[in-house]
Amino acid sequence: xxxxxxxxxxxxxxxxxxxxxxxxxxxxxxxxxxxxxxxxxxxxxxxxxxxxxxxxxxxxxxxxxxxxxxxxxxxxxxxxxxxxxxxxxxxxxxxxxxxxxxxxxxxxxxxxxxxxxxxxxxxxxxxxxxxxxxxxxxxxxxxxxxxxxxxxxxxxxxxxxxxxxxxxxxxxxxxxxxxxxxxxxxxxxxxxxxxxxxxxxxxxxxxxxxxxxxxxxxxxxxxxxxxxxxxxxxxxxxxxxxxxxxxxxxxxxxxxxxxxxxxxxxxxxxxxxxxxxxxxxxxxxxxxxxxxxxxxxxxxxxxxxxxxxxxxxxxxxxxxxxxxxxxxxxxxxxxxxxxxxxxxxxxxxxxxxxxxxxxxxxxxxxxxxxxxxxxxxxxxxxxxxxxxxxxxxxxxxxxxxxxxxx
Amino acid sequence: xxxxxxxxxxxxxxxxxxxxxxxxxxxxxxxxxxxxxxxxxxxxxxxxxxxxxxxxxxxxxxxxxxxxxxxxxxxxxxxxxxxxxxxxxxxxxxxxxxxxxxxxxxxxxxxxxxxxxxxxxxxxxxxxxxxxxxxxxxxxxxxxxxxxxxxxxxxxxxxxxxxxxxxxxxxxxxxxxxxxxxxxxxxxxxxxxxxxxxxxxxxxxxxxxxxxxxxxxxxxxxxxxxxxxxxxxxxxxxxxxxxxxxxxxxxxxxxxxxxxxxxxxxxxxxxxxxxxxxxxxxxxxxxx
Lengths: 406, 288
Prior knowledge:
The structure holds two protein chains of two kinds.
Chain A lengths: L4 H20 L6 E7 L6 H20 L8 E7 L4 H14 L4 E4 L3 H13 L4 E3 L7 E3 L2 E3 L4 H16 L2 E7 L2 H16 L3 E8 L7 H10 L3 E5 L6 H9 L8 E3 L7 H4 L2 H4 L3 E4 L8 H13 L8 H20 L4 H8 L4 E4 L2 E6 L4 E12 L2 E11 L2 H4 L11 E3 L5
Parallel strand pairs in A: 1-2, 1-3, 3-4, 4-6, 7-8, 7-9, 9-10, 10-11
Antiparallel strand pairs in A: 5-16, 11-14, 12-13, 13-14, 14-15
Chain B lengths: L1 H31 L6 H17 L4 H23 L8 H23 L13 E3 L2 E3 L1 H23 L1 H11 L1 H7 L3 H23 L10 H15 L3 H22 L2 H18 L4 H4 L6
Antiparallel strand pairs in B: 1-2
Helix pairs in contact in B: 1-5, 1-8, 1-9, 1-10, 2-3, 2-4, 2-8, 2-9, 3-8, 5-6, 6-7, 9-10, 9-11, 10-11
């Protein structure tokens, strides 16, 4: 049989239209899960794995028979690392798509851009990224870690291992500033001293003078809350000068953007970090999660902490739906405030009813051969920073982003 | 005492950094009056070439000193033949075209390598200066920059090719009078400038985490250095890089790197207010 070019085009065209059909038409009965994440642009190093994790979590739930006998349909919008698009897509999800829940947002700025939209439209919202803490809003559930959870274990270990004199370097925006305050707080609590705290805007990439000044301060160890691609230069220049063999380094942010894969083993080895997730965890839940990722998506190298947070956030929401037995708003809020928990790849994640944040396990890890080796685990750390200000059981109408201060 | 040594070395490094990143631009903008807004992307591609070559098992020095300038020079050749040569003398159009080109290059690199920070470790280890630990690779950068500067100066000053290039700066008629085709001279100059940018990117690659968007970080400082330098490509760029590098590092040590950058920008404003044609527009007018 011979095809003319026109016929091939025609067939291909019909096939293309037919192929795109199922994604437009889906059952009236499906539960709609909205997702706004940066799948391209500057932040896609964080966003891409999160998008994949969203689909993986939804697929797993659907394979097990869905929720309330219904299938989950993910409606994903790519915000292209552009805050304006967050606002736009949040409106679309809430008013046009009328989704049952939204999981998404990466930076604190993006979360604040969309939080009020969902608050006004009573659209339940899960924010699944580590952040600076302090959001108090009954409509939101936060499943990432906050500084009080991750900072104390790493400071504790660093001071036990290396000594009391601390030098802090951090990114110059609210996350870095607040994290630095917490580091200061915990170092002081343990009788240590802070030599100096230096902040760097996100585009600083020349750290020569900083490295000399750190040496002048002669700290026992250095702790970093640096963020993003340009700040990666610090670790490289630190290693290039041979300082990584002289003054030990701890960090609260290293590894979240897979920094340990960008540095060679000789540059990264020995850095002490704290976080919720390590791929090296030998728990059953993690093995199953990674096996599923490998089977459905492929390379697990890109899996980082906040992709796992997103996955756990969706599983936690699903558990709330099961507990509530309905998607009705009041029933869902009651379920959330009953302290629902799930066993995720990073351990037990339990909703803290008063703050709508989560208690979770924090691993203190060491970078070794581009892997995060777990040294110790702090079990079920509560979101104590946000809890200082926020009690949604007492003030259910609170809708504030508190600036956590110590 | 040791600390003074550390500060001096960091100042020298900063001067070398400014010279390296602006050398290619100095040639393309200073000599041809082409505002190449894709300059930062040329530097960035030089870096990516080095990293990709090292990952493929090629010797790092060969990768950064030979391959990076070759690859970016070749890209420069394509760009000059397909875009720039139609736009000589049309400054606004060139800006628009090269800005578009910069977006295209960022997109292509993102497509090939992904939007993830990549890097290679520095091939030279640190050394001890008194009680301070210093980056040995910084010394290498300073030496390479000196070598590039000397070669550029010698070529422009003492060779036939340099004479023709300087003629081209005066205007295409001068080159034509000398018996050469201005089109060809411009092409070669543009390729040389692109190759130098690639070399800079290659050499700097081991000190930074490289992203497709990294080019933007170089371009502002490079333009300020070249414009403040003025008409004499080498003397001017050297003078302005020295002023800016020194002030940047002194303030960085006294306060922090952000204040260092601010001090540098303020100094640039003052310079340009007092000397709108750049340093060599007023002093050292006969220099190269």
